[in-house]
Design brief:
Elements: H1 2-9, H2 16-26, H3 33-47, H4 56-68, E1 73-77, E2 91-94, H5 111-115, H6 141-162, H7 168-190, H8 195-208, H9 210-221, H10 226-257, H11 263-274, H12 279-293
Antiparallel strand pairs: 1-2
Length: 295
């Protein structure tokens, strides 16, 4: 919610994955991909009329990515709200809601969502509830997603220890780069250095040593509000463009090859980000989704 509000305050839509998860977490029952797509169009029409909403296929790929990452779950089949839909594989996904027409939460389409005025969904609260928050298991809620992120970080740490180079001298340059990147990220987020200036330097660091720079970014993500971090990431994406996306893709492929992240999840994140037309947005999308997944 904080990330969505921050994006709206900047006059631009939040990331597609954030919108989808907000729709699901605020709904009273299961929704299909087509339902989510319909609400996405409502959101853009009401709040961002000059922006082009994501297409059905893009929404479907995002939902599939969230499902593979364990952030949403399929609980059965949903009726086709449009009998002419070619895609008949309409899954009922949780946590979602009744039809938009009957759901009182949506009487003020989207405006209340961004003002933070919507009530918590049924079952939200302690432990995430059975039908409230989203998660990889019923009742798991956000805590289960955090737990999965912790397991991914543990796998990553174990793999790095196995692959550690024996020569200590070889590690020192990477350690210095990580410290330098961490200082730069902190300075940018705290306002000690200009955002665009820091973004340009970080884009170069990412391309020189993605692993060390990403490690510094991951550390900052644990301490800073995500909306501010996203502003920096967007600027880094604009500065790095396609070269930054390629560096992130190669890093993720290496992590999957080494078994430190699930291969299917890595491939899904790459394929979802690849459909974003703008190179800067493409790089931003991939790196931010990596942070969301805890990689």
């Amino acid at each position: 919610m904080a990330e969505a509000a921050a994006a709206a305050a900047r006059g631009r839509p939040p990331r597609t994955g954030v919108i989808i998860r907000e729709i699901l977490s605020r709904s009273a029952g299961p929704l299909s991909v087509h339902d989510i797509y319909t609400w996405m169009k409502v959101l853009y029409r009401e709040l961002f009329p000059r922006e082009r909403p994501p297409g059905y296929e893009q929404v479907r790929k995002y939902v599939d990515a969230l499902r593979k990452l364990g952030l949403v779950q399929v609980v059965g089949e949903a009726p086709a709200s449009n009998p002419n839909l070619r895609d008949r594989r309409l899954h009922a996904l949780t946590p979602f809601g009744a039809s938009p027409e009957s759901d009182p939460y949506w009487r003020d389409p989207w405006g209340a969502l961004y003002r933070g005025e919507l009530p918590q969904p049924p079952g939200a609260g302690a432990g995430g509830g059975g039908g409230g928050g989203f998660g990889p298991r019923p009742g798991g809620g956000a805590a289960a997603a955090v737990e999965e992120g912790g397991r991914a970080r543990a796998r990553r740490g174990e793999g790095r220890r196995r692959a550690a180079r024996p020569a200590a001298e070889a590690e020192r340059p990477a350690a210095r780069r990580e410290v330098g990147a961490a200082d730069l990220v902190e300075a940018a987020l705290s306002g000690g250095v200009g955002l665009e200036e820091a973004a340009d330097l970080l884009a170069r660091l990412f391309q020189a040593d993605f692993a060390s720079t990403y490690s510094a970014l991951r550390g900052a993500a644990e301490r800073w509000e995500r909306g501010r971090l996203d502003e920096l990431l967007e600027a880094v994406g604009r500065a790095g463009g396609q070269a930054l996306f390629d560096a992130a893709r190669r890093y993720l492929e290496r992590e999957a090859e080494a078994g430190r992240v699930p291969r299917e999840a890595a491939e899904t994140l790459i394929s979802v980000a690849s459909i974003v037309p703008d190179p800067g947005e493409r790089a931003y999308s991939l790196i931010s989704q990596m942070l969301d997944a805890g990689f």
